[in-house]
Amino acid sequence: MTQISRPTTTLREHSTPSTTNPNDLSRLTEYEVIGRHLPTEANPSPALYRMIIFAPNVTVAKSRYWYFLRGLKKVKKATGEIVSVKSIQEKHPLKVKNFGIWIRYDSRSGTHNMYKEYREMSRTDAVEALYSDMAARHRARFRSIHILKVVELEKADDVKRPYIRQLLTKGLSFPLPHRVQKINTQKIFSAKRPTTFA
């Protein structure tokens, strides 16, 4: 009886995620993509269509743009062109904000509309939390989630979900149950003779 040897897989070291690496697919970036239909004799100046796309890089952003434009305006990549692709940066990246996100996603039983709220530092962080949450709770893939709108909830009355509203309480504090006092390792007396030479 011959024994079949299975190929062994080696683990490769992965670098830490960086937002500046275009090949990094773990972090999303907000892009503003503008495109149009190619000019023709019947329509020499076609209308421009602008979309906000959350994608890991420019290539995926362009691909998602043509996917949505083909379904909405019947304009495909072969008969259209992209005029501009611009990355949008967060204006206040150190401020904690509340976001409301409207989505439509395809499950194994049908298409569903959904509204979810997240408390994050930026719009891209909120969208990343959305994709992780939908993958955990509903087994929804990246390709089956369509983001319709992302809005910052500036007023506390606009927050609907109780898991976000409970964090808006004035004077909110959290206990520190396991506080370890730092041991002072500095010696009071020195066993070496002091020197004045540098």
From TrEMBL:
**Which gene produces this protein?**
RPL20B
Annotated InterPro entries: Ribosomal_eL20 (IPR028877), Ribosomal_eL20_dom (IPR023573), Ribosomal_eL20_eukaryotes (IPR021138)
Q: Which GO terms describe its cellular component?
A: ribonucleoprotein complex; ribosome
The Large ribosomal subunit protein eL20 domain extends over 29-150
Q: Which UniProt keywords apply?
A: Ribonucleoprotein, Ribosomal protein
Segment Disordered: which positions? 1-26
Q: Which GO terms describe its molecular function?
A: structural constituent of ribosome
Its name, as the record gives it, is 60S ribosomal protein L20
Q: GO:BP terms for this protein?
A: translation
- Give the family from UniProt: Belongs to the eukaryotic ribosomal protein eL20 family.
Q: Which domain of life is it from?
A: Eukaryota
Check the record and name the Gene3D superfamilies matching this protein: 3.10.20.10
Xref: Pfam families = Ribosomal_L18A
| Organism of derivation | Colletotrichum trifolii
